Amino acid sequence: MLIQNKMIQRVREKCIQDDSVSAGMMYGSFTKGEGDQYSDVEFYIFIENDKMDDFSPRQWISEVYPFNLIFYNEYGTEVVIFTNMIRGEFHFLPESEIGIIKSFKPTGVFPNTDAMYIYDSTKKLKVLLDALGGDGPKRMTDENVNFAYNNFVNAWLMGVNIMKRGELARSLEVLTHVQKFILRLIRVKEQTVERWFNSTKNLEEDISIESYNDYVSITSALKENELTDAYKNALKLAEKLYDVLAVHYKLEVNKDVIGNLYSYYLEK
Question: What pTM did the predictor assign?
Fold first, then answer.
């Protein structure tokens, strides 16, 4: 048994034993049958409203498994680095906020909502989880394709301007945004859009070898020659994707824009 499964079971036991806990649920790889020895463990734990002020997340987590580090990230999530080098994410919220689960629906597909269930004394959790089932949001739409394409143009131009200025490190940072939007377009082309917000996850398995090699061509180290090649290749790939996607989607960007960007790229 994976150590994560033992930790998940310990969280379940803690939820049942602790009368401060109203409900608990899990999300992430282990709810989708994708968990392995490198996967995180991720939870929402709902606390009785009148016990929230006295509740200690740090103490609660320490009774699940010893940890080296615990802190809040930029999204307000309690992140834990356990001593076994497993990452954990915990959201501790008052029971009154259990309806937040409704907001998960637009974020993706939840193939097994039963696997998300940990514990519930409110009789509300199962209903909320069941509502997450079924088809996920539609990604292959004119709106989403245009959003990705338009944002690619914006990120590409910003990155090239910064690179021309000589700020290579910042240009490399912007290149990650170029890659993100190109990758969404690749996933639309290949109809593998389930991982819309985390498009690099399982990329080696999700897309064709040709598309994977295309993606590799727009990656770079912090070297000027590699950066210039990556931005040039990104533009060529955007043009290639345009020819494919324009057959099925109404694109807002005129193809002439790509030509203008390429001319600008060649300017000194």
Answer: 0.91
